Amino acid sequence: MDGPNLDDLRQQIDGIDDTLHDLLMRRAELVERIAAAKAAGGLALRPGREAQVIRRLLVRHGGRFPPASMVRLWREIMGAFTFLQCPIRVAICRPADQPGYWDLARDHFGVQIPFTAHETPIQVLAAVRADPNVIGVVPAPAQDEPQPWWPRLMSGDPTTPNIVQKLPFVAMPNSRGRDLTGFVLARLDAEPSGEDRSLIAIEAREEISRSRLAAAIRKAGLQDATALFDVEQGGTYWDLIEIPEFVGDADPRLAALAVALGIDGARVVALGAYAVPPLVR
User: Fold this and answer.
1) Selection from 50, 37, 42 nearest residue 77 by Cα
2) According to the CATH classification, is domain 41-186 in 3.40.190.10?
3) Domain 196-275: assigned CATH number
């Protein structure tokens, strides 16, 4: 029996390429119709929805095509179509000694959306506050960092962004950012994806012990924190906790946590949430 004809196989591949290209163009038309139906203004960004799509595709994925490559293709598609709907731009904290944050952002948002580099998270935060079409990428919080950015998200100013995504959602094997972790800041509300973690900040005039904080978290009805960071500046103490569930701004457990702490004037603010990255083998 004769083996497969290479020309026939290549023609089949060409046909698949044409079909993929046709579907992309059709998708672009649908996105334009969606954009036209929406109210003017606002970011065309749906972090929770995007996470649900990627998780669903990973579940149904099969064969030898690498899952990370499939995710990269879809991330490129999502980034390009987001840019079609609004003039989105990304401000990245990319210190000279950590160029990988640029890769981290490009792997997630694609090559079409314009990027600008900044030396510090504070500069990124200022860029996001100055323009509602700018989203920011900053390093994940770390204990004892000299200028933590996250206490500034408690300001209450209407231009203050929320944490809406964690990067990488799926790490790219050859990326300089594969060993880095960052957060995406945007002037929109975080949305649940079905499996999320929330960031909650506490401001007080006295230091809060870990045991006292853990007890207050449980008393407020929140799940136990999976990460804790604290900082003191000028007699004010801030704590950042990560909770393994979605907690929105209007969640009554935030007020319950402030009461459970038993500290006059203590403030508790939800800083946002992110979809838990899937495990990709």
Assistant:
1) 50
2) yes
3) 3.30.70.260
